[in-house]
Specification:
The complex is a heterodimer.
Chain A: H1 20-31, E1 35-39, E2 43-49, E3 63-67, E4 70-76, H2 78-99, H3 105-119, E5 130-138, E6 141-147, E7 153-155, E8 158-161, H4 165-175, H5 184-196, E9 210-216, E10 219-224, H6 230-238
Antiparallel strand pairs in A: 1-2, 1-8, 2-9, 3-4, 4-5, 5-6, 6-7, 9-10
Chain B: H1 14-22, E1 28-30, E2 36-38, E3 43-45, E4 48-53, E5 56-62, E6 65-67, E7 70-73, E8 79-83, E9 86-93, H2 94-113, H3 129-145, E10 152-161, E11 167-176, E12 182-184, E13 187-189, H4 193-204, H5 211-228, E14 235-242, E15 246-249, E16 253-254, H6 262-265
Antiparallel strand pairs in B: 1-2, 3-6, 3-9, 4-5, 4-13, 5-14, 6-7, 8-9, 9-10, 10-11, 11-12, 14-15, 14-16
Helix pairs in contact in B: 4-5
Classes of the chains: A alpha+beta, B alpha+beta.
């Protein structure tokens, strides 16, 4: 860890024009377990790797439903994400009460980014240590948005955040052009294949640590976990894909800028 | 154009007539916080009519804004587009209508400037009529709960929206009153028109009416309102929303009226009645 005389407060600039506290918060997103999102022309899909603090504990929830048409995947501090999720659910309910329709994703994403940004400019605050992926289907179709602690917001065809997410991103970058015409199941398979690349070391994507959610036209936000996920994992197995080291991981070979994340101690706060 | 042919006038507009009776009545009262709130309207517009027809929705209203019983402004527009596919019309306090219109237009501008999607070219961020109507309902209800209502009965016209954001073929017509009561119907009328015009519209309405028929019906209703409503005028506007053409509001124009009925022409004296209508 590098200590710096300009990193004691979030509102203090470093001479290089950086806000180090904000960058540290961004780092906390990179330590969280991977989360990916992608969309076709009819569906949006979230995928995440769940962590558990010990063999005896349950896995920490990574995908949260916000409304019938919208959900989030999180990487970073879970507690921060819960606060934000509560606020987002409230915003969606308010919108439904006032306008009688569901919240447009873009508006929620920018409002969320504004919330992130506010903490980077206010004394005695700290940035939210969490990155969020929003996946939705609203009146303008399917959407995927990414927000990060710095207050930036990006709309994407597909994206990945969290530990080892670069290999997932590489997979998505390679295949995103085929996503628009994908069926719901195909999109889920793409999500799983991208996730497999993000599994640590000799680990495996299982129905316990995998988590997928899908939302689409006339289809409410649905979480697919545990036994419901198994058929998809079986399909992945059939392709020979569920093995982090080889098999379906052929895409990960061209990881020109793979992150250094060997010494990632699994912090209980982060998922 | 003669405005005071009849004495008496509508008893339905209690607040307006009591205002004119007392001259400079107290128009505002203090609420608990010591702020002044509206307790009666000052400058008022009368009825607004709305009807669905085969491929659109049509609104009609006259252009008179009264100051009590005085016909103060005779070219005031009470049918206002709030975005490219939504139209509102309101009776009641005219300044409150201006305020509502400003609010809705500001919201529409914000919607245009904060695009939801960076990718879709024709991204329809714009609120559909139903959203405008629902939003107005929330605003009106909130204001009445603050004991400071916006003194209007508003009619919102436009089109329903498909779940995918495209404009559907189904027209939308809804109303919100000054206490936040909101409902939809195939034909609506506010103010005095609720008593005089609405029964006529119900009688003549067909879902497959052509635009011309709808317009003729509304003009007839406006004419009848002009005859019977002392706060009405024969200078009117008609506005429509169609799926293809969006919102279209006519310039004010005058309706032909016919005053040669025997009852109008001959004096009442000596007819063996009490001289009233």
């Amino acid at each position: 860890m590098f200590r710096n005389m300009y990193d004691t407060d979030v509102t203090v600039w470093s001479p290089e024009g950086r806000l180090l506290q904000v960058e540290y918060a961004m780092e906390s997103v990179k330590q969280g377990s991977a989360c990916i999102a992608l969309r076709s022309s009819t569906h949006s899909v979230l995928g995440a790797l769940k962590r558990s603090v010990s063999e005896l504990s349950s896995h920490q929830q990574k995908i949260l439903e916000i409304d019938d048409h919208l959900g989030i995947g999180i990487a970073g501090l879970t507690a921060d994400a819960r606060t934000l999720a509560k606020w987002m659910r409230n915003e969606c309910l308010n919108h439904k009460y006032v306008y009688g329709t569901s919240m447009p994703t873009g508006r929620l994403a920018t409002d969320l980014a504004d919330r992130h940004q506010r903490t980077t400019q206010t004394y005695v605050r700290r940035p939210y240590g969490v990155g969020l992926l929003l996946a939705s289907f609203d009146k303008n179709g399917p959407h995927v948005f990414e927000t990060c602690p710095s207050g930036n917001v990006y709309e994407c065809y597909a994206t990945a955040i969290g530990a080892r997410s670069q290999s997932g991103r590489t997979y998505l970058e390679k295949h995103y052009e085929s996503f628009p015409t994908c069926s719901k199941d195909d999109l889920i398979m793409h999500a799983l294949r991208a996730l497999v690349g993000c599994v640590a070391g000799d680990g495996e994507l299982t129905k316990e640590n995998g988590s997928v959610a899908v939302v689409g036209k006339d289809e409410k936000f649905t979480l697919i976990e545990g036994d419901e996920l198994q058929p998809y994992l079986d399909r992945l197995e059939l392709e020979g894909g569920n093995n982090n080291g080889g098999g379906g991981g052929e895409e990960e070979k061209d990881d020109d800028d793979e992150e250094e994340d060997e010494a990632k101690e699994e912090d209980a706060m982060e998922t | 154009m003669s405005l005071s042919l009849q004495s008496g006038g509508s008893s339905s507009r209690v607040s307006a007539s009591s205002f004119s009776a007392t001259g400079t009545g107290i128009v505002a009262a203090a609420n608990a916080a010591g702020n002044q709130v509206t307790t009666r309207p000052i400058t008022t517009g009368t009825s607004v009519l709305g009807i669905k027809y085969r491929n659109g929705v049509m609104l009609a209203a006259d252009t008179l804004v009264s100051y009590g019983s005085l016909a103060k402004y005779k070219n005031a527009r009470r049918l206002l587009p709030v975005n490219s596919r939504t139209l509102i019309g309101a009776s009641g306090e005219y300044s409150d209508l201006q305020s509502i219109s400003d609010l809705l237009i500001a919201n529409a501008l914000e919607d245009r400037c904060t695009a939801d999607s960076l990718y879709e070219e024709d991204n329809t961020n714009e609120e559909c009529a139903k959203e405008v109507w629902s939003y107005l309902r929330a605003v009106m209800y909130q204001r009445r709960n603050k004991m400071n209502p916006l003194w209007n009965d508003v009619i919102v016209a436009g089109f329903q929206q498909n779940p995918d954001g495209s404009t559907s073929d189904t027209p939308f017509l809804g109303t919100v009153d000054k206490i936040g009561t909101a409902y939809e119907d195939d034909m609506l009328a506010t103010g005095f028109g609720g008593y005089i015009a609405l029964p006529l519209m119900r009688e003549k309405y067909r879902p497959d009416m052509e635009e011309g028929e709808a317009r003729a019906l509304l003009e007839d209703c406006l004419r009848i309102l002009f005859y019977r409503d002392c706060r009405a005028l024969n200078r009117v506007q008609i506005a429509k929303v169609t799926k293809e053409g969006g919102v279209l509001v006519s310039e004010p124009y005058e309706l032909d009226t016919f005053w040669d009925y025997k009852g109008y022409v001959s004096t009442k004296a000596g007819m063996g009645t009490d001289g009233g209508w």
